[in-house]
Predict the structure.
Amino acid sequence: MRRSLALVAALVALAACSRGRAESRTAATASVQVAAIDIGRAVGLDKRVAEPARSFAPGDTIYASVATEGKTSLVSLTARWRHAGATFHEETQMIAPDGAAQSEFHVSKPGGWSAGSYEVEILVDGIPAGRRDFSVD
């Protein structure tokens, strides 16, 4: 009987810890919002796209500049790149913004991009926060 009670107590404690992590993750996500997503062929030292673009050549490197607002001790920011409905690259950065912040992601393909429609989706702690469509001509 004592073992059963101990097992139940351990399971309740584990569930509470898991819920606490999920709640803190939701709080971090809620405290950081994506303010803007720009895509282009280059970024400056400030991680901003100087000349936004929506159409790229097969040999271009494609940059996504993500502006966030909010404050948290740590949150994940992910860029998910897709073509023809399939994810071909995903990258996550851990950021600890204290107000407005800028992050940069980029992709390139040595053999060149296939013509067609593409998108980059930005996620904050795994939750979709915005996206930009672009094409390769």
